[in-house]
Design brief:
This protein has a domain of 262 residues: Alpha-Beta Barrel (TIM Barrel), CATH 3.20.20.100. The longest helix has 18 residues. Helices cover 37% and strands 14% of the residues. The protein is of the alpha/beta class. It binds NADP nicotinamide-adenine-dinucleotide phosphate.
Length: 375
């Protein structure tokens, strides 16, 4: 795990969730609660329950939350959680809480994005979250062929100077374009897919992040739920899912080497999990948290029911035997290859075809659920 580790930060929980300092006086919990799963397209969401459970995450020491302007209704839910916590426990209860959102301008708007557009996006996130200043804004740019990402980053810097943003990060940028942005902006973090299945952010990307003090926040750690006991020994389900994130990660499994190799990985993880009295999800999370380039792992869960399994990852220690068993399977993976988010960026490729590119303008039409994706 990268970054400067501080003492455990949890209160009222047996397991201490370490905090990592990202910038002076700015720290995150090494497990971040993901927000995409609350947008409604991963299965029904009981909003009151989900909001109440956010308090359980905070009490357990998971004090950092991830969301995005394009996750429908999620910034608002986190805003309700914040307001409720202030009402019941006072503002002090939010002292360690950090909310990371994203600025994801619509693909169709990239060519004509102005400072006013960026500001209105940031103002909308502020309003939804009930904040005066956003803790961390993670910037996404759909298409490098459309010039403007450096200018848009300049606009975010202007808004930072105006006091509307504390830290700026990115999501899904590759080495070449992250380098460009680092030359003009203090980029605190990069959110990328990183898991037992996807190591595209190792190597050059991780080296750049280390050099420029960019913290890596990993998503896809459980491959949207595939890296769990639920899929062990199951026949290949194909690609036609109602839950859109499963299509995304089923495609990553294909790049990894296909369903048979994936089952070998799950079997190896099960053997490791047996030795630790754990779940496959716990071992998959631990294996990613242990990677030196990963600062924090984002875990998507609608509710807190599996929080104990998540926290268990912080208690157990993988042995050399455990790691070797996992790597024996991983060494036979054929991919995914190429730059971070490179496959997904190809609009005509099978990863790009399932994307939704204009979610901010309400482009939520679904020809079929399996054609849907989000940043
Ligand atoms: N920047 C980007 O482009 C991007 C892309 C994807 C995700 N993200 C971020 O990352 C977060 C996580 O999303 P993800 O795609 O990476 O998904 P993930 O965390 O790999 O997997 C989430 C799924 O795993 C299930 N799960 C959670 N904990 C579990 C446990 N202990 N045991 C078994 N199953 C468990 C959840 O079930 P339930 O649904 O039942 O709770 C959910 O369906 C998102 O919420 C979002 O904040 C960012």
């Amino acid at each position: 795990m990268g970054g400067d580790l501080e003492n455990g930060a949890s209160s009222g929980s047996m397991t201490e969730v370490p905090r990592v300092t990202v910038r002076p006086a700015y720290f995150v919990s090494t497990i971040i609660k993901g927000g995409w799963q609350l947008a409604g397209d991963h299965g029904a969401v009981n909003a009151d329950q989900a909001i109440a459970d956010m308090v359980r995450f905070v009490d357990a020491g998971v004090t950092t939350f991830d969301c995005a302007d394009i996750y429908a209704g999620v910034e608002e839910k986190i805003g309700r959680f914040r307001a409720g916590l202030i009402r019941t426990r006072g503002r002090v209860a939010l002292d360690n809480v950090k909310i990371h959102t994203k600025f994801v301008p619509d693909r169709d708007s990239l060519a004509r994005l102005t400072l006013a557009d960026v500001e209105s996006g940031i103002d909308r996130s502020l309003l939804r979250l009930g904040l005066d200043r956003l803790d961390l804004v993670q910037f996404h740019w759909w298409d490098y062929a459309v010039p403007g990402h450096v200018e848009a980053m300049g606009h975010l810097n202007t808004l930072r100077d105006k006091g509307k943003i504390d830290l700026i990060g990115v999501t899904n940028f590759d080495v070449e374009h992250l380098t460009e942005l680092c030359d003009t902006t203090d980029i605190a973090s990069a959110q990328v897919q990183y898991s037992l299945l996807d190591r595209r952010a190792s190597g050059n990307f991780a080296a750049l992040a280390r050099r420029r003090r960019v913290s890596i926040f990993a998503y896809g750690v459980l491959a949207g739920g595939f890296l769990t006991d639920a899929w062990l020994s199951r026949p290949d389900p194909g690609f036609d899912f109602g839950n859109r994130s499963l299509v995304k990660y089923r495609l990553i499994i294909e790049e990894f080497g296909g369903w048979a190799l994936f089952q070998e990985l799950l079997t190896a993880l099960r053997a490791v999990a047996d030795r630790h009295g754990a779940d496959i999800a716990t071992i998959a999370l631990k294996a990613t948290l242990d990677r030196p380039e990963v600062t924090a792992a984002i875990v998507g869960a609608r509710y807190a029911d599996r929080l104990p399994q998540t926290l268990h990852a912080l208690e157990l220690r993988l042995t050399d035997e455990d790691r070797a068993e996992i790597e024996t399977v991983r060494s036979r993976a054929r991919g995914p290859l190429g730059p971070v988010y490179g496959l997904e960026r190809d609009i005509s490729g099978r990863h790009g075809l399932i994307m939704k590119y204009n979610l901010n303008r309400g482009d939520n039409r679904m020809a079929s659920a399996s054609r849907v994706e989000a940043a």
